[in-house]
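Journal club prep — side note

Before the paper discussion, L.F. wants everyone to see what a predicted structure for a comparable chain looks like in token form. Sequence:
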Amino acid sequence: MMGTGRVTAEPARQKCLRETREARPGEIVVCAPDEDKYRVQSTSQEDPLSDQALNDGRLTPPDVAGNGIFKGKATATFGKVDKPYLIDLKSIPEAPAGSDADKIAKGEMRAH
């Protein structure tokens, strides 16, 4: 047996019906609930640098933003040169014909 109360349509359904009535001929209206309003952010979305977010089994590229190439303390240093050597490559004479350097330059011999 049915009660005498009246059935009230939910707001999302009412909006969908209104958009369907306002649609132009030939236009397709798709009505679907908003799934995002029920979605909870994961740990990796809330804190992308947390252990849970970073320990997902995938290899991640290094963070190259910051001082030098990588952030943080340098892992290797090579010292410092007070005055660099400058070599004028145009001043180097051509290799003598038939020499190993000449053959390597022409691709006739592999450099080892």
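L.F.'s comment for the group: The first helix runs from residue 11 to 22. Keep this in mind when we get to the figures.
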